[in-house]
Amino acid sequence: MTETQKTWSETESARYRAAGHWQGVTFGTLLRQGAAGHGGRVALIDGERRWTYADLDAEADRVAGGLRGLGIGRGDRVVVQLPNSAEFVLVWFGLQRLGAVPVHAMPGHRRREIGHLVRVAGAVACVVPDRHARFDHRELMREVRAEQGPGGSLRHVVVVGDPGPDDDFVPFEALRVDPPSASGLTATDSLPAPDPGPDPDDGGADPADVALLLLSGGTTGLPKLIPRTHDDYAYNARACAQVCALDARTVYLAVLPIGFNFTFACPGVLGTLMAGGTVVVAPDPSPQTGFTLVEREGVTLTSLTPPLVPHWMDEAVSSSWDLGSLAVVQVGGARLPEDHARKLGPALGVTVQQVFGMAEGLINLTRLDDPEDLVCATQGRPVSPDDEILVVDTDGRPVPDGTAGELLTRGPYTLRGYYRAEEHNRTAFTPDGYYRSGDVVRRLPTGHLVVVGRIKDQINRGGEKIAAVEVEEELLTHPAITAAALVGVPDERWGERSVAFVVCAGAAPSAREVAAHLRERGLAGHKAPDEVVQVPGLPLTAVGKVDKAALAQGFLRP
């Protein structure tokens, strides 16, 4: 851990170690152990490319060697902005071999977000594709570097694909060097039993070190960084894998963005690899792509967000795909409408598992043997016996089961402080270490949680978290807009859609014009409002704040 964040007390740490939650093993060692135990088993599939556990272990050594040649080492932060591809996994484990820290950026992030991540993390490198979804990430990196200037931390840009004309952009293939010592293994090597202590090839990392930085949805504009240690994040993945009954026969299909916490460790990519299973990477989330991979690779488990569910159901009932291997479909990232939850299982012939969690830690899953009513009407219960839950009123007092209140939580994999965000940490946590989630929930006597809403001024559009204040600030830079409020309203497809209420001197710009303006300002595309509504003025509450509830009610009123 670093001096820039709070962590668990020695008493708590000892308790989590004694309970077996924290096993004192780095991700570098976990991969080495996987190669020792499952060397010839297929670990990773991307299109026609396949890696056994031994291959993946050796490739991590090669990538680590190339990164080490760039001067990257223990504790260095590296922004990884890659689409769903095997390269994300290879880079991630290569960084772990050095004790370096990947920062999980989303493919849709643009100059504003990536520049912010580089500055706050003090990132020494970024890893990006050449182009993805018709967007040139090399040009993005040129803008980020120019904005940072010569005194910034960013020293290297690694490009998967064509690095373009930039002499100092490093092609990913150039990183894949042969291991510099006998400790590096090739795919055909005879693998020794792992040492019980830390792997010497993880750059000397300690299991209590920060292993990665995830991103918060955030309500203060740009995302905050969430430090996750080797100990706590490995437990996160392992606990979810145990609830989901993962084993060496598991074939997990990564449909959602691979850097998303849900996809990567709930149980996702990491949980599957820790169980000895196989990860299949889907290049896009369409049901046609997904079902093709289910048929071809014998996929047993995948994860979706609610907006994808009706598309997957429609494709399943209208076509003749062989989905016999698919056993479980997780749905999370936003609340799944109960009607969709009841239809999904029969449509795909699967067990549905609802997931409610946060990159900050706490993960709730419905159990595979839960009654249908709990599966369809709740968002699960905590995966760890040491997850501590409080549901409190506005004065911080616990409320009875069944009563809605804010969710507070702490436990063996829930952070105690955001990275380099001391001012925010003073209000985000209680004095005794509970994280104030901002989610409003009801707890049932079974321990299952029902998500009711959020306290935070944040819109959850199909799992994409949009901080209203960030978009509002950028709306005000449009020459026609004098005041603006971004409000989330219910939507059958997305869970919520965003509506921008704007005050203008003349005619209001269209939603398309606003989207183009925000894109020019460097915001990610999903942050553009779905609808723009011109109003004569913004209503205020008694304390002078914009009354967003009144705006939403007026918009929804027939």
Helix content: 25-40%
Quickly give the structural class: alpha/beta
- Radius of gyration from CA coordinates: 23 Å
Judging from the principal axes of the Cα atoms, what is the shape? globular
The name CATH uses for the topology of the largest domain is Rossmann fold
Determine and state the CATH class of the largest domain. Answer: Alpha Beta
Low-confidence stretches: 180-199
Number of strands: 27
Strand content: 15-25%
CATH architecture of the largest domain: 3-Layer(aba) Sandwich
Q: Termini, distance in Å?
A: 54 Å
Region (Disordered): 183-208
InterPro entries: AMP-bd_C (IPR025110), AMP-bd_C_sf (IPR045851), AMP-binding_CS (IPR020845), AMP-dep_synth/lig_dom (IPR000873), ATP-dep_AMP-bd_enzyme (IPR050237)
Protein name: (2,3-dihydroxybenzoyl)adenylate synthase
Domain AMP-binding enzyme C-terminal: 470-545
Describe this structure as you would to a colleague.
This protein has 558 residues and is an alpha/beta fold. It has 3 domains: 26-36 and 53-206, Rossmann fold (3-Layer(aba) Sandwich), CATH 3.40.50; 241-454, 3-Layer(aba) Sandwich (Rossmann fold), CATH 3.40.50; 458-556, ANL, C-terminal domain (GMP Synthetase, Chain A, domain 3, 2-Layer Sandwich). The protein is built from 18 helices and 27 strands. The strands form 7 sheets. It has a 9-stranded mixed β-sheet, with helices on both faces. It has a 5-stranded parallel β-sheet with strand order 4-3-5-8-9, sandwiched between helices. A 4-stranded antiparallel β-sheet has the order 19-20-21-22, with no helix packed on it. A hairpin with a 5-residue loop joins strand 21 (435-443) and strand 22 (449-454). The radius of gyration is 23 Å and the shape is globular. The termini are far apart.
